[in-house]
Amino acid sequence: MITKFLTNVAVSFNPFSKLSKSTRIFLSLLPPDARSTMKIQAKLLPRASEESPKIAVTFKDGKVMELEPSKLSIKDLVEELDRHSRILRKKEDLGGN
Amino acid sequence: MPPSIFLTAAARTKLPNRTSISFRDACYFIETFVNGGQRCYASHSNPHSKTSIPPGSNQPPSHRPYNSRQTLLHRTYISLLRSTPLMVVFQHNNLRANELVAIRRDLKFAMANVDAQVAASQPAPIPDEDGNVPPQPRPVGEQVKIMVVNTELFSASLRVAEYLPKDSKVGSSSGPEAYDMTVQHRGSHPMEALLVGPVGVIQFPTVSPPHLLAVLNLLFPEKATFRKGTDPLFISGVSKMLLLGAKVDKVGGPTIDTGALKHITSLGDLVTLRGQLLGLMQSAGAGLVATLQSPVKALWVTMDGRRKMLDPESQKSAEEEGPSDPPAA
Fold first, then answer.
1. Helix/strand/coil (H, E, C) string of B210-224?
2. Cβ neighbourhood burial of B80 (10 Å; 0-12, 13-18, 19+)
3. Nearest to B197 among A17, A28, A31 (CB)
4. How far is A71 from chain B (nearest CA, A)?
């Protein structure tokens, strides 16, 4: 997963729900020094909560992507995020910085 | 075809340096060559076979090969599940090794502090006649440990620990019979939802609210404020840990969420709780006795009044007090 272009990650999930699997794996995919380059907020819902898990990611260009991880596998989730990251990377490469 | 492929295959099968080879070696050579060096183990060992007992040993049978890491971990986790009354489950996201070391070290110091506080609040042990201090139980804080678990094996062990009937005659909890008897419960325990991704547990030897409170404040603070001089590795490590839930009361106990876990910290220790329960039961008992007694008492008072009314002796005594009709014969 390309995490270079993420600035803000906000997730909320209920750990007792099987739907939150991809959200939790997504959190574990952020690199060890991610906390120094981006802001990560993880909110745990109480056990009785029926709310579905949520991921909201802000990119460097200001785009906010909100995903429904209960309907996506971790592979789809990463693919979805990388699609925009690759555009940003291409822009950066062409900018010649 | 370049000859190097043959040479690598020959090197992988460790063929002897001679021109003629045996039929068995030739078979190995072909197999290695065809599979590209990847030996296919499925045909060699069946994981469900009951023959995985070491030859000439009295080791109990195991579902996986007896000398595998899986068998070792399965046994470790089963004993952990059966003996730990409080297990806090957390997720660690890409902890570095030195961060985990820092967390373990700071946890040890914090637990030693709590142990000292608990020991100070309790009465000092009274030495006997010879001046010997009776042996004290090992402090709780010493036995609080962080353990990173293998989630798949942990859920397999959880299944056996929770769903294997107590009276079942199986040779070993890690054995094939135990597996077969519990495999239908796959995914049914509420704790299994927690066992996804990088997961660790903090094990407590008893449910001790002061120790639990210290652990939660140290490793899962609601507002990250650290003392001056805290190790930066510890701070970065703690920011990556997420409290998921806990399992209480050994086997058969419930899995609780963070809210219930925080509630446990507000309770007193076990001795205080027992005292409270005893007080509650005594007062309830007294109330029950009073309730049961009251109709009987009322009945007795009524009957006694009636007896006094009908009793000639008492009537006589009542007549003596004032002039009235002669007593009935």
1. HHHHHHHHHHCCCCC
2. buried
3. A28
4. 17
The predicted complex's ipTM stands at 0.91
| pLDDT reading at B44 higher than 80 | no
* Cβ pair B143, B205 in contact under 8 A: yes
Nearest Cα residue in chain B from A42 = B242
In a shared domain, residues B105 and B231? yes
Instruction: Render pLDDT for B117-170 as a digit per residue (tens, 0 to 9).
Output: 988 888 777 787 787 888 888 888 899 999 999 999 999 999 999 998 888 888
Joined together, the tokens standing for residue B154 give 């942990």
pLDDT tens sequence across B183-227: 999 888 999 999 999 999 999 998 888 899 999 999 998 887 788
**Domain parsing of chain A, residue ranges:** 6-95
Other CB atoms within 10 A of residue B126 CB: 7
Determine the distance in angstroms separating the CA of B42 from the nearest CA of chain A, rounded to an integer. 28
**CATH domain A6-95 topology:** Glutaredoxin (3.40.30)
- To the nearest whole Å, the CA of A48 is away from the closest chain B CA by 9
pTM (two decimals): 0.73
Structural domain that includes position B217: 69-121+137-274
A24 closest CB neighbour out of B91, B258, B259: B91
For residue B209, tell me if it sits in a domain. yes
Whether A34 and B239 lie within 8 Å, measured CB to CB: no
